[in-house]
Amino acid sequence: MRHRVKGKKLGRPTEHRLLMLRNLVTDLIEHGKVVTTVARAKELKRLADKVINKAKQEDKVKAIREVLTIVTRKDVAYKLVNEIAPKYANRNGGYTRLLHYSFRKGDAAPTAIVMLVEPKEGNSEE
């Protein structure tokens, strides 16, 4: 039984899995989208939404520190806190989108695209 077990192991030791997911989150924030396998994409989506939620805090210094526990590069963390997170101020989740894409050439693994959702313009609360 899988009671209270969160996430997949992805066939990797804990340290390698966490580093891989941190690098995927960093690349997603830097480039706006990432192509990876479906299993990795589902785990990436969970972690990326949590990081963007942390970046939406009022206190910028605290937000940057908390984001840097997951994101591996300072410039990407600053970009997330100062540019990306304010766009999602009125959004309560669902910052990423997962699209099933194709099959990888070498081993025919199903791949998916994970991308940041574009916030709607003119969505102000009056």
Structural write-up:
By secondary structure, the chain is of the alpha+beta class. The chain has a single domain, classed as Ribosomal protein L17 (50s Ribosomal Protein L17, Chain: A, Alpha-Beta Complex), CATH 3.90.1030. The protein contains four helices and three strands; from the N terminus they run H-E-H-H-H-E-E. The protein has helices at 14-31, 38-55, 60-67, 74-84; strands spanning 33-37, 96-103, 110-116. It has a three-stranded antiparallel sheet. The protein is globular and about 45 Å long. 21% of the residues are buried.
- What name does the CATH topology carry? 50s Ribosomal Protein L17, Chain: A
Q: What is the percentage of strand-forming residues?
A: 15-25%
CA-CA gap between termini: 48 Å
The total of helices stands at 4
Tally the beta strands. Answer: 3
CATH architecture: Alpha-Beta Complex
Q: Could you describe the largest sheet, including whether it forms a barrel?
A: 3 strands, antiparallel
Question: What is the CATH H-level superfamily?
Answer: Ribosomal protein L17
Report the C-alpha radius of gyration, rounded.
15 Å
Average pLDDT: 93
Number of domains: 1
Which regions are unreliable across 5 or more consecutive residues at pLDDT < 50? none
Helix-strand category: alpha+beta
Percent helix: 40-55%
SSE arrangement, N to C: HEHHHEE
CATH class designation: Alpha Beta
Overall shape: globular
Trace the largest sheet across and list its strands: 1-3-2
Pfam families: Ribosomal_L17
Keywords: Ribonucleoprotein, Ribosomal protein
Organism: Desulfurobacterium thermolithotrophum (strain DSM 11699 / BSA)
Family: Belongs to the bacterial ribosomal protein bL17 family.
